[in-house]
């Protein structure tokens, strides 16, 4: 599986409390070296980055901050994906890390400590988006971080909606109103019969109320994914009016060349026996 890692830059922390103390320290250290820190969600849909409203992390997940020598940056991701990346080349046969397979972990974080952080997301309409909790993240897929596009990803739509509708859910994870309420769904792709925000359309059509309605969400995801790719038309950005299938590789390449994204390969997620 070839994923695109999107680089969402960590902005100065906005709280004094203990949960962001480690990140504040890391930002200070990185600043001295002129380095930026990025959350790096893995996606197969780089053309949807115009619709980002937030970034999701698993509150119970284990994450780390890793040196990426090839770009002189710091990536926040799961330890598993950091190991994977360290065995991959960035450009010209150069590995992401100084040496093949050698990872440099600068700090470790529990997901909770990564919630409520302000980020700058490339191509997004919103100047600043926040990290929010998502309980259905798998730490065995991608980087364990997910960028949220509620217009086109049904999981993201119901999860953001749950946070917007439920003050107690926000309170439990230290999420303030400002981190979720101003973030409306951004329509980015028009699909005949599904409107300009297909995930919102499908969630309403299937009456999906909670992120735990797995079967319905899978159905909604499969349908919007397929339709978006086959008959979707961009409604924003420089490729407005063009077919998703035509511009997806172009947007992907442009983001990579602009340093807003990079590639990450992952073997099929099933555990392969070491003896076969
Ligand atoms: C942005 C986006 C926009 C996504 C969209 C989907 C959609 P797949 O096909 O199963 O590999 N994702 C990535 N990592 C994780 C994780 N660890 N746990 C849970 N979800 C994860 O799924 C790849 C997609 O699943 C990724 O692409 C990411 O969400 C999410 F409009 O990124 B996507 C209809 C889907 N639309």
UniProtKB/TrEMBL annotation:
Query: Would the keyword Aminoacyl-tRNA synthetase be found if you checked this record's keyword annotation?
Result: yes
Its domain of life reads Eukaryota
What is an example of a GO molecular function annotated in this UniProt entry? Answer: ATP binding
Q: Which UniProt keywords are present, listed alphabetically?
A: Aminoacyl-tRNA synthetase, ATP-binding, Ligase, Nucleotide-binding, Protein biosynthesis
Q: Does the keyword Transit peptide apply?
A: no
- Name its GO BP terms in alphabetical order: leucyl-tRNA aminoacylation
Q: Which family does it belong to?
A: Belongs to the class-I aminoacyl-tRNA synthetase family.
Question: What is the official name of this protein in its record?
Answer: leucine--tRNA ligase
Q: Which organism is it from?
A: Fragilariopsis cylindrus CCMP1102
């Amino acid at each position: 599986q070839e994923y695109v890692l999107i680089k969402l830059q960590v902005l100065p922390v906005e709280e004094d409390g203990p949960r962001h103390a480690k990140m504040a320290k890391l930002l200070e250290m990185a600043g001295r070296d002129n380095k930026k820190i990025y959350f790096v969600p893995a996606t197969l849909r780089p053309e949807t980055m115009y619709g980002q409203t937030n970034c999701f992390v698993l509150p119970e997940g284990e994450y780390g901050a890793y040196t990426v020598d090839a770009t002189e940056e710091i990536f926040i991701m799961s330890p598993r994906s950091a190991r994977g990346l360290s065995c991959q080349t960035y450009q010209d046969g150069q590995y992401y890390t100084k040496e093949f397979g050698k990872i440099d972990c600068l700090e470790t974080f529990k997901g909770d400590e990564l919630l409520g952080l302000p980020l700058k997301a490339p191509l997004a309409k919103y100047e600043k988006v926040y990290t929010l909790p998502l309980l259905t993240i798998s730490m065995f897929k991608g980087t364990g971080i997910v960028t949220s596009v509620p217009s086109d990803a049904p999981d993201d739509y119901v999860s953001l909606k749950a946070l917007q509708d439920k003050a107690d859910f926000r309170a439990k994870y230290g999420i303030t109103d400002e981190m979720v309420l101003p973030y409306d769904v951004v329509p980015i792709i028009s699909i005949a019969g599904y409107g300009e925000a297909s995930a919102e359309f499908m969630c309403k059509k299937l009456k999906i109320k909670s992120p735990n309605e797995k079967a319905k969400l899978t159905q909604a995801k499969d349908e919007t994914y397929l339709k978006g790719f086959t008959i979707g038309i961009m409604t924003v950005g420089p490729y407005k009016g063009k077919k998703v299938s035509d511009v997806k590789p172009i947007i992907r390449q442009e983001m990579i060349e602009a340093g807003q994204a990079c590639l990450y390969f992952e073997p099929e997620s099933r555990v392969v026996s070491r003896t076969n």
